[in-house]
């Protein structure tokens, strides 16, 4: 198996160069800097998260339809990704149903957790140990790109220092940019701290918020656990019928228990 120096978020790379002026900025020159790296791209097929939750990222799609300039930029980014896939010196990978950041994290975890990562997605902060390996397109450590992340989190939450805090807060607060709803009431710091201090935070979250919590877990935890669960896409119909935990298949229970086990193993409190 070929070894790669770095893992590169192809969506981030495509946006940076695809939206650059002229012939994709200086890509013709710098492309050789990526010949020993592995680019992770979004697959053109429908995402598993979109099947599970059709509103996922629907706001972005609607804004793009209403804004001609966004449409133009998205078209250029798509054309740049085609260029990447056809470039003989570029190595790339994708997986049907997976987003690029999920596959990148999965690859990083399986390859020794010591590869430099080129990408600025805030969701990477969920993963213990990856902070020191994150770089932007210029090779700079991501000190400024995430400087405003803490502002949207509750008091006593330190997402940049504690991936456990970040992961729990993501599930509770949702992600407006992705269309994932918030389940924690505003200013409910006592509930947040109860979950944060629990040895089994995901079980605690489900017990307090029911099926919406399970949906947020499947939409926001990285790498995405949804496709790995047998029958996972049946969840949407179950939610519509108001059928909660006791009637949800064992795979969901295993997901919650497995995530809680991982929290104790990899995420110190």
Order of helices and strands: EHHHEHHHEHEEHHHHHH
Coarse shape: globular
CATH topology of the largest domain: Rossmann fold
**Could you give the distance between the termini?**
37 Å
Characteristic key phrases:
269 residues; mainly alpha; Rossmann fold; 13 helices
Structure description:
The protein has helices at 10-18, 21-24, 27-30, 48-52, 58-66, 68-86, 100-110, 163-173, 189-196, 201-209, 211-220, 235-240, 250-266, and strands at residues 6-9, 38-40, 91-93, 116-118, 134-135. With 269 residues, it is mainly alpha-helical. It has two domains: 6-135, Rossmann fold, CATH 3.40.50.1010; 150-266, no CATH class. Strands 3-2-1-4-5 form a five-stranded parallel sheet. It is globular.
Write a short abstract of this structure:
This protein has about 270 residues and is mainly alpha-helical. About 45% of the residues lie in helices and about 5% in strands.
Topology record:
Layout: E1 6-9, H1 10-18, H2 21-24, H3 27-30, E2 38-40, H4 48-52, H5 58-66, H6 68-86, E3 91-93, H7 100-110, E4 116-118, E5 134-135, H8 163-173, H9 189-196, H10 201-209, H11 211-220, H12 235-240, H13 250-266
Parallel strand pairs: 1-2, 1-4, 2-3, 4-5
């Amino acid at each position: 198996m070929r070894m790669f120096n770095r893992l590169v978020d192809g969506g981030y790379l495509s946006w940076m160069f695809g939206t650059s002026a002229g012939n994709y900025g200086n890509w013709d020159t710098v492309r050789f800097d990526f010949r020993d790296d592995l680019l992770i791209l979004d697959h053109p097929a429908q995402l598993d998260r979109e099947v599970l939750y059709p509103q996922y990222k629907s706001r972005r799609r609607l804004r793009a339809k209403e804004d001609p300039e966004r449409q133009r930029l998205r078209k250029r980014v798509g054309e740049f990704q085609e260029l990447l896939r056809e470039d003989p010196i570029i190595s790339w990978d994708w997986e049907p149903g997976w987003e690029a950041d999920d596959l990148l994290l999965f690859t990083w975890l399986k390859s020794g957790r010591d590869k430099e990562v080129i990408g600025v997605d805030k969701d990477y902060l969920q993963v213990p140990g990856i902070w020191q390996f994150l770089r932007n397109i210029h090779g700079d450590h991501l000190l400024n790109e995430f400087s405003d992340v803490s502002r949207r989190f509750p008091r006593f939450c330190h997402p940049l220092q504690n991936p456990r805090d970040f992961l729990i807060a993501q599930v509770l607060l949702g992600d407006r940019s992705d269309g994932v709803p918030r389940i924690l009431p505003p200013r409910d710091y006592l509930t947040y701290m109860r979950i944060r201090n629990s040895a089994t935070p995901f079980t605690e979250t489900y017990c307090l918020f029911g099926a919406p919590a399970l949906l947020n877990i499947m939409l926001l935890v990285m790498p995405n656990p949804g496709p790995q669960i047998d029958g996972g896409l049946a969840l949407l119909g179950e939610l519509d019928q108001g059928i909660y935990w006791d009637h949800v298949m064992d795979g969901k229970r295993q997901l919650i228990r497995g995530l809680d086990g991982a929290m104790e193993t990899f995420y110190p409190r």
